[in-house]
Design goal:
Length: 543
């Protein structure tokens, strides 16, 4: 099972210790049966050594079982943390285009559900080892009592394993199909939680998207899950049936074929009943372990997608510091988007320069490439052709983090963090309160324990908070992607005539993506994008 191999690679020592404890517990439990049979077979007084052996086996069984489960509980929590950390590092380390291609619902499904499914299955692994040791010791004991019964039990065990493997292969296929449907379910959940307002306003669309489409996906998920789990339950029932059949053979047919005393028959049947009871505990875990195998394969698939794209996070390179830069230059920068039917949208080649103390507007129609240009400029997208240079130095993987550290940005699809952690420490809270007053948010938001007291605001107000965090970052290059689109006329005027002027006076480079043509005169330069190509226009300020 892949789960065993993964745990051996990632947590070898605690996992092996837990398995050893489980094996000892299983062996002690099976030996306990032999001691009970020995005590029952004595007509007179029971010797002291037998009593002490009985007590020792009881203590060993309970102690090692507790130790095994305790180790696995600790391991499962550490496992969740490490696996999630690896996924998070993969997401943050992979190129943005790769993360966007995989999609938020799939990544969130792996982080929130798959990891928990695997962790929940870990306590079942000691039970498997316990049962295996229990069965082995029982077979050894029966070989001493009756070699014929031991041979029949061994054949029954092998047959039960073969039947389980046959069922499991089919069951895993259906659980894998259910896992694929789960990704689609998460897409529906995201649409419902983020599109609640729109769905409430449109009954037909609500019934189509949150009704028919969701129900169809949920039904498919339920159907595959039921079939997969039922197959595993069928495997469990088949395993039990094999041993029940063996007990029936021992009770009703063996005495006809093999000379066997009543005592031997009684001992054999009792051992088999204990074996069935032990196997029953394992069989209840088989569906859980099956789901865990599917979840692990899905996580490994996501990690392979993230890690095969290459990692962007590199150790800081000595001397890679762009503080005090004088120019950022695009030289033949090109980026292409593949289309669904083979066509592609190409942005570029782009050749132009950004300078400190300059306000540059980027304008153009929807789909002209403005946001892609913003991601190329900030280093979030890598040029497919051409290069970005800072003061003549080409931006490569080794210095990309240092380059990105020059930017503060508020994208059109921005995310607003409640915490101010990670922003410059000097008078952070006091500066935040100052900007709250200036942005007229101090009557709704305060700073409590280095956090915004609330982010449950209108979109325009949330953008003002995002602007506040950009100001606190105090970088040399500012980028605003349609920031003013959700602002009222008063704050549009404030943004274009006061805030941008203030940033220019502080010698910041500023790029503004905007459709507000009444404020184009504020720019030093205006760049218009048409179908991925650039046309630069001088404004009245630039003449």
């Amino acid at each position: 099972m892949g789960l065993f191999g993964y745990l051996l690679r990632s947590s070898r020592r605690p996992f092996l210790l837990a398995l050893v404890a489980s094996v000892v517990s299983g062996g002690a439990g099976a030996s306990f049966i032999a001691v009970v049979n020995a005590a029952l077979g004595r007509a007179g007084d029971v010797p002291a050594w037998l009593v002490w052996t009985f007590a020792g086996l009881c203590l060993a069984t309970v102690t090692t079982r507790f130790l095994s489960q305790n180790l696995l509980f600790r391991l499962s929590q550490g496992f969740i943390q490490r696996l999630r950390r690896r996924l998070i590092d993969g997401i943050l380390g992979a190129p943005l285009r790769t993360v966007e291609k995989i999609g938020t619902p799939r990544l969130y499904s792996a982080l929130s559900d798959d990891v928990v499914v695997i962790a929940d299955a870990l306590p079942g692994l000691p039970m498997v080892c316990f049962s295996a040791a229990f069965v082995v010791v029982c077979l050894v004991y029966m070989a001493v009592v009756s070699p014929a019964v031991a041979l029949a039990s061994l054949v029954a065990t092998a047959l039960g394993v073969a039947v389980y493997r046959l069922f499991a292969r089919y069951g895993l296929r259906h659980l894998g199909a259910a896992r694929e449907e789960q990704d689609r379910l998460f897409e529906h959940f995201r649409a419902i939680t983020e599109g609640t307002k729109e769905l409430k306003l449109d009954r037909r669309r609500r019934e189509a998207l949150a009704g028919d489409a969701l129900d169809a996906t949920a039904a498919s998920y339920r159907r595959s899950s039921v079939v997969g789990l039922s197959v595993f339950e069928g495997a469990a029932g088949s395993g039990q049936a094999v041993f029940f059949a063996l007990i029936g053979v021992l009770l009703f047919l063996f005495p006809l074929w093999v000379a066997m005393s009543t005592r031997t028959l009684t001992d054999s049947v009792m051992v088999l009943l204990f074996m069935v009871s032990s196997l029953q505990g394992v069989l209840t875990w088989l569906p859980v372990l099956g789901r865990a195998s599917v979840a692990l394969s899905k996580i490994e698939e996501r990690l392979e997608q993230l890690e095969s794209a290459g990692r962007e996070n590199h150790p800081p390179v000595p001397g890679a510091d762009f503080d005090g830069w004088r120019s950022v230059e695009f030289r033949g920068v090109t980026h292409a988007y593949p289309g669904a039917t083979g066509e592609e949208f190409v942005l570029g080649p782009l050749d132009f320069t950004f300078r400190p103390g300059e306000v540059l507007f980027v304008v153009g129609g929807n789909g002209s490439g403005k946001t892609t240009l913003a991601k190329l400029l900030t280093g979030l997208y890598l040029p497919e052709k051409g290069a970005v240079h800072v003061d003549g130095t080409e931006i490569t993987a080794a210095c990309r983090d240092a380059y990105r550290a020059q930017f503060s940005a508020v994208f059109s699809d921005f995310f607003l963090f409640e915490s101010l952690a990670g922003l410059p420490d000097t008078d952070r809270a006091e500066k935040a309160r100052h900007y709250l007053r200036r942005l007229q948010l101090d009557h709704k938001v305060s700073i409590v324990d280095d956090r915004f007291s609330t982010t449950a605001l209108s979109q325009g107000q949330r953008k003002r908070l995002a602007l506040l965090t950009a100001y606190l970052a105090d970088r040399s290059f500012y980028l605003f992607d349609e920031w003013a689109a959700d602002q009222d006329p008063v704050f549009k005027e404030f943004f274009y005539t006061e805030l941008l002027t203030e940033l220019k006076e502080r010698n910041k480079a500023v790029v503004v993506i905007s459709h507000d043509d009444q404020y184009f005169h504020v720019a030093d330069r205006l760049v218009r994008l048409d179908y991925g190509r650039i046309r630069e226009e001088e404004t009245s300020r630039g003449r």
